[in-house]
Amino acid sequence: MTGTTTAADYGWLKERHQLLLDAYCLTLVRDLTPEELLRALGAEGRRRIVGVNALSGPSSEASGLGRFVGAAPVDGWALMVEFNGYLGVTDELMRPLSRGRRVVSHFLNVNAVDRFRWYEDGDLRLGFQPLFADERYGSRPDELLAEMRESGFDLTERDEDGDYDDYYESLTGASFALAHRLTGIRVTPELFATAGFLCGVVPRD
Question: What are the tens digits of pLDDT across the range 50-74?
Fold first, then answer.
């Protein structure tokens, strides 16, 4: 593991990026440039945008055409951000994309459906719903138990009918923290504000 942040380190997300947190997917892909990533996803069109918040408007405008994605280079990784998207947790896309590399993604939508995925060389090593982190799957579902706890996940069994509205905020931070541990890429306010994204639209099937 290469990073040691926890959920508490990401409180700034709610203050500065609440619109993103309402429905987002964030993906980190090692050893691919943004151009290579967009090409692999079949994205059409190319435009450059600075800062995560600036992705929101174009994402809404493209909603009828497909999934708008932005990818930025960060220390040997491509950081892909989607407003109201889910490509980063789509198995048929990420599993082949991960061959020869690591892919880490996490997702939350407006219906409180959430996902965390770790792919390695074509293999889904770990997948789970952050709210129900006791239910894990993949080829190595228990390899990161200590890291998951330290990041802020509750690994005890939870009642699916419970009221967890307040808990979702810390879960999002925990997802960012676990992704940091798996990739070494720490998402910061400065990174989100200054990252230069290459953007395109992945057509709907």
Answer: 999 999 999 999 988 899 999 999 9
